[in-house]
Structure formats: structure tokens, C-alpha cells
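From the methods appendix. Each design record in this collection lists the discretized structure first, followed by the designed amino acid sequence. Records were kept in a plain field format so they could be parsed without special tools. The example shown here is representative of the layout used throughout.

RECORD:
C-ALPHA CELLS (305 positions):
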């Protein structure tokens, strides 16, 4: 029986954690991996691990999702590498709980918002022509199970880069809500031409080097949680299974209905079962407003859909 053609898959944050494990698994299964990493040294180290069992050598693409210029350069490099992109996994995110005061990018955006939402938004837009060239393109965003503790969370449209409400936890979950809403908006805009998913990631065990880098008090406080958390390898399998699935989100949705049922199948748990998002994610007007402000923030890029 002939083997299926390898997919070309871009994974952001492929140097550690879930992104690294997903890249390793997909490369070992014969797919071509574009590993998008912010730090060149850590990226090269990850590439050695990915390529240890890769059927096709993975490619490192240095990409800082907080820097619009770096994103544009990465998109140009990827366009030069391949004529199509089958899957984009927007995995990279920053969640530095030691950052008690907000940091801002040269563009003036709060760092968590820039890295965890605006960066993936811009990257997806810039890579959309390559995705549109694939026969079964897919975009995978990543959110967090921690949003279950914030059922009333909503986008702070008038305070997106306002330091007054900042805390690492608030900023992180605010951007993760935006990732869900963007997945919903993109799925509706693509109208079946693109499969879109957003994974609700539970607490994940940190790699040893990341634990070692924490201040001692955080290492002590985090140790019990880390022991109970799901191994990154397990979530890497989730990403990998979703990247190559033959089904689409529409198989779970009811297009004749409105609200949650019409979007069911986009937001998934670690077992790829459809789950509900926070209530505000189903507000169509809020999703359109988020799309508009995100477009403006990243320079109004063109989309293939």
C-alpha cells in the first residue's frame, strides 16, 4: 500500500515542552517540520532532538512572535522553503509568573498580548496563502483549561495594553480567550476551505530546565503541581493526532443552529473531544471587533480567506 504524502507542518515554540514533543512525533512519522523558535541556540538544540528520528530533516526558522518584523521575515523564509503549508500549530506562548509588572514591545503592546495573540494572528495571516495552497489545510490554536476558573472573562477592548489591570495570570488567560475567539472567527471566514481547531490544554509538567530556571520559592510552590501535571509527551501526542486527522470540526457542528452548536468541534480538550468555551467567545460582535482591532494592530495583513 502506498504511504500517504508527508505533510509540511509549522510548529511555533518547537524548542521545548509540548511543541518540541509534537514536532518530534510528527517528524518521526515522516512529516516535514518547520520549527519556529525565538532563541537560535535553543532552536538548534531542539532541531538535533527532532532530527534524531526524522524521516525528513526539520528546518529551524528563527521567529520572535513579539516582533512583527521577525514574523514577516519568518513568513518570507517559509515561503521560500515550500510552496504549501499543510498545518500551522500556534503553540508558542509566554507565561512568566515572575513578571509582576508588565513589559511592552517596541510596538507598544503588552508582552503577553503581543506574543500569545497578536503574533499568532499575524503569522497565520502571513502564512495563509501557503495554507490555501494545501489540499486539506489546518490551523491549530492553543488555549488553556485554566479558563474554566474564569467563566465571565471577556476581552478588555478599551484596555488591551493598559498596565492598570495587569497580572501575569490575567494577561495570560485574556490572550488565551482571544485565541479561541480567533479560531471561531477564522473557521467561519474560511467557510470550509480550512479546518480550524483550538486545543484546551490542561496543566502540563514543565521540563526540568524550565523548573530549574524558576526562583527557589516558585520551584518549591510549583513542585506538587508539577508532579500531578500531564507530561508534555502526552499533549504532544494530542497535537500530532489533531495535525493529521482526516475529519474536520464541521462533523461536530450544527450549521442550522446558532451560537455554541454552530461552532461545536473547534474547541477541543486533550482527548480531542468538543468542549464549551467561555460564554463571551460566542458573542459574534465581540469576535468581529477582536478581529478588527487585531488586524489594525498587526498592520492590516491580507488573508487568503
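DESIGN:
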Amino acid at each position: 500500500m502506498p504511504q500517504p504524502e508527508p505533510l509540511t507542518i509549522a510548529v511555533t515554540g518547537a524548542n521545548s515542552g509540548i511543541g518540541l514533543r509534537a514536532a518530534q512525533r510528527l517528524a518521526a512519522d515522516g512529516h516535514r517540520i518547520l520549527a519556529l523558535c525565538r532563541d537560535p541556540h535553543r532552536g538548534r538544540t531542539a532541531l538535533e532532538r527532532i532530527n534524531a528520528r526524522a524521516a525528513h530533516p526539520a528546518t529551524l526558522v528563527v521567529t520572535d512572535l513579539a516582533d512583527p518584523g521577525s514574523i514577516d521575515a519568518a513568513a518570507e523564509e517559509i515561503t521560500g522553503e515550500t510552496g504549501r503549508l499543510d498545518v500551522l500549530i500556534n503553540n508558542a506562548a509566554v507565561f512568566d509568573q515572575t513578571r509582576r509588572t508588565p513589559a511592552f514591545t517596541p510596538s507598544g503592546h503588552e508582552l503577553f498580548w503581543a506574543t500569545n495573540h497578536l503574533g499568532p494572528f499575524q503569522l497565520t495571516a502571513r502564512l495563509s496563502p501557503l495554507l490555501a495552497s494545501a489540499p486539506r489545510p489546518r490551523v491549530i490554536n492553543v488555549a488553556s483549561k485554566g479558563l474554566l476558573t474564569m467563566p465571565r472573562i471577556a476581552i478588555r477592548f478599551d484596555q488591551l495594553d493598559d498596565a492598570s489591570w495587569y497580572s501575569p495570570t490575567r494577561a495570560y488567560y485574556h490572550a488565551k480567550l482571544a485565541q479561541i475567539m480567533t479560531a471561531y472567527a477564522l473557521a467561519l471566514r474560511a467557510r470550509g476551505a480550512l479546518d480550524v481547531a483550538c486545543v484546551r490544554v490542561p496543566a502540563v509538567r514543565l521540563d526540568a530546565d524550565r523548573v530549574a530556571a524558576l526562583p527557589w520559592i516558585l520551584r518549591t510552590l510549583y513542585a506538587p503541581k508539577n508532579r500531578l501535571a500531564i507530561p508534555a509527551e502526552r499533549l504532544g501526542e494530542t497535537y500530532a493526532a489533531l495535525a493529521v486527522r482526516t475529519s474536520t470540526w464541521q462533523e461536530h457542528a450544527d450549521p442550522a443552529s446558532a451560537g455554541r452548536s454552530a461552532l461545536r468541534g473547534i474547541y477541543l480538550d486533550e482527548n480531542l473531544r468538543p468542549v464549551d468555551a467561555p460564554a463571551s467567545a460566542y458573542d459574534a460582535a465581540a469576535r468581529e471587533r477582536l478581529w478588527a482591532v487585531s488586524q489594525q494592530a498587526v498592520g492590516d495583513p491580507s488573508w487568503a480567506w
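APPENDIX NOTE: The chain has a mean pLDDT of 93.
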